[in-house]
Amino acid sequence: MIKFIKYYLKKILYKFNFKLSKIYIQNEYNLESPDVNLLKTMKNCKGVLHIGAHRGSESAVYEWFGKKVVWIEANPKIFLDLQINIKEYKHQVAICALLTDQDDEVKKFFISNNDSASSSIYEFGELSDGNKSIWKNKNLKMVNEMYLKSKTLDTVIKDNNIKISNYDHWVIDVQGAEGLVLEGCKNNIQFCNSLFIEVSKGEIYKNGSQWSNIKEFLKSHGLKPITEIQSEHENVLFTRFY
To answer: Which of 10, 15, 2 is nearest to 55 (CA)?
Structure first.
């Protein structure tokens, strides 16, 4: 009942340009230094397509760079928070959609215990919540689930009249489903000049996308990585300008 009241209070306040928001405290420092190539890419791109938005924590950074942004987030339970967090930025819009390689498939979507940040259509693999976990201190678990209808990125672009040529830098962070998202955008990937994507080697997610497949797919579409993957799970920048 309390969650229900809070949600509708947020919705009403959002309508009148006010917000009720929880402060999410990070338990760890971000020790990852900004990549020079990524900074140059952000400076030179026309706009950003960010898939796997969560609550839009990068919105202020994109605004600082002066970029227009299309955010796509699958989880409807945090989508309102995303809308609230980007509302002050005139050139940022959000779309709620679960992206895969097929339209209108009903998919089970698992909700993770780390503020839903690792939620996915895939369950955690042994490198996430097993004895071999590379994040033992986080105690990652899937704690809930819901059913969502899928869309391809090509369909979302068409249905929302997105002029995709204006969004030539893409970010894909979809917890193991990166390969499915890419398979579902073959009509529009030509407009992607750079891509910052989360990739894995090993079972981070059961049946999730693997680095070798992602690299091969992107290579076939003219995108190559700036660097090779150095660990089981990290973000890699791909570009057409190498």
So the answer is: 10
180 is in which domain, residue-wise? 35-99+152-239
- The CATH number assigned to the domain holding 93 equals 3.40.50.150
Q: Decide if 104 is inside a domain.
A: no
pTM of the model: 0.90
Question: Does residue 230 form part of some domain?
Answer: yes
Rounded mean pLDDT of 164-172? 98
For the segment 64-89, the average pLDDT, to the nearest whole number, is 96
- Please tell me the distance from the alpha carbon of residue 37 to that of residue 49, in angstroms, as a whole number: 18
Residue 55 resides in a domain: yes
Q: Is 75 exposed, middle or buried (0-12, 13-18, 19+ CB in 10 A)?
A: buried
The CA distances from residue 144 to 107, 121, 212, 223, 225, in Å, are: 14, 12, 30, 36, 35
Q: How far from each other are the two terminal CA atoms of the chain, in whole angstroms?
A: 54
Residue 108 belongs to a domain: no
Asked if residues 163 and 156 have their Cβ atoms less than 8 Å apart, the reply is no
Mean pLDDT of all residues in the chain? 90
Nearest to 166 by CA among 94, 64, 99, 92: 92
Q: How many domains does the structure of the chain reveal?
A: 1
